[in-house]
Amino acid sequence: MTPARERTEITDPDDPRIAEFRHIRERDLTGREGRFVAEGTVVLRMLAAAHGAGRGIRAEKILLLRNRAAGLADILSLFPADVPVYEAEAPVIDAIAGFHLHRGVLALGVRDAAPPLMELLRALPDDALVLAACGISNHDNIGAMFRNAAAFGASAVVLDETCCDPLYRKALRVSVGSVLTMPFAREGSILDMLGALAEAGFAIWALSPKGETEIRDIAPSPRLALVMGTEGEGLPPAVLSRFHTARIAQSPDLDSLNVGTASGIALYSAAMAKRIL
Amino acid sequence: MTPARERTEITDPDDPRIAEFRHIRERDLTGREGRFVAEGTVVLRMLAAAHGAGRGIRAEKILLLRNRAAGLADILSLFPADVPVYEAEAPVIDAIAGFHLHRGVLALGVRDAAPPLMELLRALPDDALVLAACGISNHDNIGAMFRNAAAFGASAVVLDETCCDPLYRKALRVSVGSVLTMPFAREGSILDMLGALAEAGFAIWALSPKGETEIRDIAPSPRLALVMGTEGEGLPPAVLSRFHTARIAQSPDLDSLNVGTASGIALYSAAMAKRIL
């Protein structure tokens, strides 16, 4: 039996101890000293797993709806004792967070600066699948890409500087917490990023509706990277002309697939080709 | 040169001519006499294509942000002259619709009662791919499933009575308007629905993480139906025990895939097996 975790009651929405949670819908903490907000029990559990696992991710504080706290004892026991747990009644939580939190589970975390891309790539195994992305600014899509990368056994996600930060609250939630456990880097231009992948021995496949090879027929390589662009413009011509290109066959009279779904199909195909799963 | 479409200016948010658009975020018109709200230029174009195409879908009225109207002349000309077009300045639009409409493009449509399932199935070609779903209540997921069904050449989508209405505003938007062009039915229990599909000659493949056959290896059949359940509970045991089952290989230590993404992978695999694309 896990001993019940000590919790501190918050009765004043303006209590400075939970100031970071105030109005989280209107602002976003990401980019401010690497802090991020985790929502919901699944993401809280992933945060517990990431905390202290050597990935540079730590939990700072937890805020719970009072009637959720008892049911979370197992997860709370995974956090070290110096991570404070606050609880509050529903009206106080609503006043703090600026909207009705259906899940009543919030945590504040901090991530050290992401590792430099070259360092990340060096640390990957000789046999690795990597998902790369260019220009993905939609939080749902970034979250979906991390969720899919985790589901299909990718070793890392690498983003160019024009992608949004995957630690945004909504991206983190849509990823079902995978952003906290999947190694990632976000830096530089797409061409510099792909150059670094090539130098590290990755076969690079850029996805495009006009790609040369159907995605389920791509050749397996020990190190293989899939590159996704935006739904509207796709990848820049300079990328498509320099690397292998792959397509996902689809009806010609439609907008392209959602990029999150396309990443799922591409990762599934690559994982099957590489016999990861 | 298309003659400019006549537009009527609205200056009073309480004008009865645009009453149906008021507070659309808080309420949902679907289920009230078959009415639905279409948002954005892409969905407006799909509504124009569906209007009068014999699918029982009609546009009733259009409401535009004034500075968007001129740029939409081409799409507006696709609607018959008896579909009124209203326009208003941004503060009026905001007051009408209850939130800031970034796209400034709204239409009200009406759909006749969906065709009975048996009638829908009889009208399908001898060679057909159908996406079936059980218990999908999330609007994003329903929308994603329609988008994927359209992208991979499915002939219809069939939903059991526990799925949400795909004409909900957000489902329609996420589907990029495919709900308006893809034949669908929504009625009865999942077992009745699958019984009707079997009777109509469909080979039925129920998706489950524990399915027998890897999805990319399923046998092609002239008439083939894929069945998706919810992310949490999955399909009922009575479905999994009576029909073929297929799995999408994935990392064992994770939640299952998002059901929208899973439908994309399953439809892609089936479309490739059936050489639809």
From TrEMBL, chains A, B:
Entries under InterPro entries matching the protein: Alpha/beta_knot_MTases, Ribosomal_eL30-like_sf, rRNA_Methyltransferase, SpoU_MeTrfase, tRNA_m1G_MTases_N
Domain named tRNA/rRNA methyltransferase SpoU type: residues: 129-268
Entry annotated with the keyword Transferase: yes
Keyword Transcription: no
Entry superkingdom: Bacteria
GO molecular function list: RNA binding; RNA methyltransferase activity
SUPFAM superfamilies on file: alpha/beta knot, L30e-like
Gene Ontology annotations of biological process type: methylation; RNA processing
Sorted UniProt keywords: Methyltransferase, Transferase
PANTHER family named in the record: RRNA METHYLASE, RRNA METHYLTRANSFERASE 3
Protein name, per record: RNA methyltransferase
Record organism: Ciceribacter ferrooxidans
